[in-house]
Amino acid sequence: MPRTPPKTQTQRPFVSLDLFSGAGGFSEGFRQAGFHTIAANDVDPWAGATYELNHRQHGTKFILGDISNECVQEQLFDAVAGRELDVIIGGPPCQGFSQVRNHARLIDDPRNSLYRHYVSVITQLRPRIFVMENVPGLENLAGGAVRAQILEDLMLDGEYRVECRVLDAVAFGVPQNRLRILFIGIRSDVPANHRFPESPFANALPILDRRERADRWTYRHRKSPETVRSLAKLLDPDNTELVNVEQAIGDLAWLRPNKHLVRRPSNDAIPYEAEPTSAYQRARRAGSRELFNADVPSIREDTVKRLRSIPQGGNFRDLPEELAARYLSGKKWGPELGRETLSRKYFFAYRKLHASHFSWTLNTKADCVFHYGTPRALTVREFARLHSFDDTYHFLAGDRHSRYRQVGNAVPPLFAKAIGDAVAATLMADEEPRTVNATRQLLLPISNAHLSKIV
Fold it and tell me: Could you tell me the pTM of the whole model?
């Protein structure tokens, strides 16, 4: 992983702009990498309230509204006015990239209006670098035609040199398998080469194999010389390079479900009831003395019965036949589907985390994964831990679902920091010749004056 070169006392902090910022994971990682995010924009008011709560003290202006609105764009441009913008970061939705028809330019698809505005802001502000993060499916969609089209659009007729790469956040200390594609563009007059985050574990991540034995499943990590070394890192609680689920949230295992599910969870802090047992837990506590976002959602009796029969790392397919019935306790829930058993849409339901492995990719729903030890869903705080947010980063705006969505949609801060470190290294490589040239320009008049005196 490239290290960010130390900044001199006279060097200005690198300036960034965060579009489609959500709750601020991308900005938080770039802040940790030494960037100053001058402004951020998102259309979600609850995510915006979370962003402001956590970034106001860093001098970031949050602009709420649709980026397609001219007034919103003017506020963004005004926030940047008079400053050299080093980088624009963001992950615009790209629903219109789902298919290619008639070889039409995908940027013209009306469903890609937000993507078009992201490109438009880059065109007008011309940052030295931009980073676009998105789902990895864009890599091979339509046989790679979508990726090629995005690369062409982002080059802006030669204004930028653009490269892309698919990376897994788990290789950068995030305890969650989360593949993302990064498009990094460098302005044509910036001589530095592309740098992407690098990890020694990128091609040697431990894999959890499922091995059938009798009527149950057992688990073991697939072994190779490389993964054996990675596995040693993963199982070491004092290591933070690769982190498993228990190392991330094991100190919160004492939390229990609320008896009554309320729409808006409490914003009250509670004391920690257990000491941290790993380096990752100590790092994420970040000196916090209180625990926020620790409400555990209530859980159905049927779900508890199923989870108790599923081994760690298992899911719906591990259920015995008698527990695959739609209703176990006689209490009806959900829409009537006209069948007596759970349907195929539940294939990825009831996924129980494995304590000694990475988490699955978290989405925006509280029940996308369940706790490895206690039959319950995770709290927003445990979501945030698996996303690498510090406990000092609070999600206090919106209803319960909004808070899970804010975390699930965010760029994990540790992953964002790795990206920021790589971008900073690129910018520093460009700063060196700038500094030399500026020094030469300052010395030139002095030298000429000195020569005139000699003559």
Answer: 0.89
Is residue 418 within 8 A of residue 196, CB to CB? The reply is no
Residue 325, SS3 per DSSP: strand
Q: Alpha-carbon distance 410 to 66, whole Å?
A: 18
Active-site annotation, residues: 94
Give residues with Cβ within 8 angstroms of 72, minimum separation 6.
41, 63, 65, 66
Half-sphere exposure of 39 (CA within 13 A, CB side): 17
How many Cβ atoms from other residues are within 10 Å of residue 412's Cβ? 28
Note whether 17 and 37 are within 8 A (CB).
yes
Residue 12 CB contacts under 8 Å (≥ 6 apart), including other chains: none
In this structure, what DSSP letter does residue 188 have?
T
**pLDDT, tens digit only, all 455 positions of the chain:** 444 444 544 467 899 999 999 999 999 999 999 999 999 999 999 999 999 999 999 999 999 999 999 999 999 999 999 899 999 999 998 766 654 444 456 666 666 788 889 999 999 999 999 999 999 988 888 788 888 989 999 999 999 999 999 999 999 999 999 999 999 999 999 999 999 999 999 999 999 888 776 566 677 788 888 999 999 999 999 999 999 999 999 999 999 987 545 556 779 999 999 999 999 999 999 999 999 999 999 888 888 999 999 999 998 888 888 887 767 776 665 555 556 666 656 666 789 999 999 999 999 999 999 999 999 999 999 999 999 999 999 999 999 999 999 999 999 999 999 999 999 999 999 876 555 454 445 445 544 444 344 33
DSSP-assigned beta bridge partners for residue 176: 359
Identify the structural domains of the chain with CATH numbers, from first to last: 15-199+412-439 (3.40.50.150), 202-231 (no CATH), 232-408 (3.90.120.10)
**Ramachandran class of 134: left when φ > 0, alpha when ψ lies in -120 to 50, beta otherwise:** beta
For residue 130, is it left (φ>0), alpha (ψ between -120 and 50) or beta? beta
